[in-house]
Amino acid sequence: MTRLVTLEDIRAAAERIEGKAVRTPLIAVGGPPLYIKCENFQPMGAFKFRGVLNMLARLSPEALAAGVVTYSSGNHGQALALAARQFGTRAVVVMPETAPRVKVEGVRGYGGEVIFAGTTSLQRKARAESELSARGLTMVPPFDHAWIIEGAGTTGLEIVEQCPDVTSVYVPVGGGGLLAGVAAAVKGTRPDARVIGVEPAGAPKMSTSRAAGHPVTLEKTSSIADGLVALRPGEITFAHAQALVDEVITVDDGAIAAAIGWLFREARIVAEPSGATAVAGALKAGAISEGTVAVVSGGNVSPGDYVGYLREA
To answer: How large is the average pLDDT for residues 189-210?
Structure first.
C-alpha cells in the first residue's frame, strides 16, 4: 500500500525550503471573493520550485555532486536548473520537441543543459533515464515522488494559514504532484474543506484513472495548458487523489483562455494556461462562496502567446 505524505512531512518541508522559496500571497478577487494563490510569484515563475528545493535539500552530498536530471515540459525543468545552481550542482533537463521557447530559454538561462526528446512525458522519461545511466546523474522526478509532493504541499499549508476559513481549493492537475501535496496539507488541517482537481478536457488522465480505479495511460493528450498534458498520473499522486481529493473536473481550452483574461482584467495577474486552469474550474463551478481558493500554479508564458490568449478571452 502506498504511504501517503503526512502533514508532518509537509511542515518539515516548509522548514527545509524556508528562505529559498517565496511565501506567495493569497489575493482576494471579486465579491464574494475568489482567493488566488499566486505561485506565479515564485523565483522561476511556478510552484515547481518548492518540490525541487525540498528534494535537493534531502539528497546526499554524493547524489548532489553527481549532478541531477529530470524530464519536463518546462516549469519543473526551470525549477531544477535554478535550484541546482543554488546548490552548486549541474542540471540536465529533457524537454519535448514542442516545448514553449520561453521555457526552454528559462532552463538555459538558469544554467541547465537542455536535451529534446519526442513529444510525450513517457518519451522524455525514457531519455532522462538513459542519461542517468550513461552519466551517473541523480533523478529528480517531476511529480511522482514523496519529496516532490512534500514540497508542493507547502502551497496548501500556506493556503490554510492565509485563509483559516477555507472551504474549497481548486488545483490544476498535470501529473498530480501539486494536487497530492495540497490535498494532504488541506485535509490534514481542515478535513471538511473540499479539494477539487482541475484538468484540461483534452488531457483527462486523472479523472479517467479515478473512474477506472487505477492509473490509466491515455493514448494522446492535447491542450493549450502544456504543463498539464501528461499521458498518465503518477502511482503515488493517484493514491493521494483517491484518498484525499473530493472531485476532479475538466475544462476546455476556451475556458482556460477565458480564465487567463479574467485574471488579467480582475487582478492584473499574468498566468500561463496551465496556471489559469484551476481558476477556469472555479469559474465553471460558479457559486463562489467565502473561502474558495484557486491556485495559479505558474506564469511562464511568452508575450506573443499571452496576447493571443487575451484576444480569445
So the answer is: 98
